[in-house]
Amino acid sequence: MTATEATGTTRSAGAFTTPRARRRYIVVLVVLGVIALGSAFGLLAWDNPLPVGTPGFWRIAQHRATAVVVMALVAVAQAVATVSFQTVTNNRIITPSIMGFESLYRVVQTTTVYLFGVAGLVAIQGVGQFALQVLIMVGLAVVLYGWLLSGRYGNLQIMLLVGIVIGGGLGAIATFMQRLLTPSEFDVLAARLFGNVSNADPSYLPLAVPLVIAASALLWLRSRRLNVLALGPDTARSLGLDHRREQFLVLTLVAVLMATSTALVGPMTFLGFLVATLAYQFADTHDHRLIFPVAVLTAFSILAGAYFVMKNVFYAQGMVSILIEIVGGTVFLIVILRKGRL
pTM for the full model? Predict the structure, then answer.
């Protein structure tokens, strides 16, 4: 009698090893869905002076719906991008922010205030400025990927190190310019350098929504290829996958998601790491078709739940990103100390 027969369980080589694991996944998905829907409805209905369902209620809720849509976009972008990036790099610690997207965002915002003042920062707001930021971020990322992945070395680790150096250099440039600003200019700039839902202009959504949906859908459709990439380059090649080409395509889609999220609301360094870490714990599977929904629901639940609590309990909704950074940074340190390595 085998061990499986003795325990009365049936193991499988599929996404779930046991029927119990499948049932657990469904329960987790339902719970996260309820939390996400409850948080979204709470943001729309809480402290709304008119009865639920009346025309006046929906008019007020419509004004609040922009923030909910922005949170959903950021949740999808950060969750899908981080899970995919960690799969391609075969590392559960690093996140796409390592490539310098947030440093580039800080440089763009700081340079605008430095050259044109606060009036210039206000004057350049709009879809054109948003599209330009996304285009610059994605363009630099694609050039970096194309150069370092298809060059003589073709080394992902070198690409990551170059990304860290570029991010550090851009951060130093931004810090230098910030020291030359007047106190009033710095105050205005500092408010934009923190990730905040209120940074998003509703006029950005017609461009941001298609970008996030298209890039996320393409990554989800490549879930089976991501499963193969997770096995490592040698195994992927032996299974007939063009590893370098697939790596480049996934990293490009990740760049689109991260650039859109960062240009929309600003930097949120540890949100992706926190969400990806929790998603793998909740899903208990390595199939990306199943990990992506859990990661997205987890991200939205964290964002919407934190925003609801900070806005309606502590009246400090602008502190949401700081709270997420503290919690995410703490989880990062715990994971590092438990694993003992990167």
Answer: 0.87
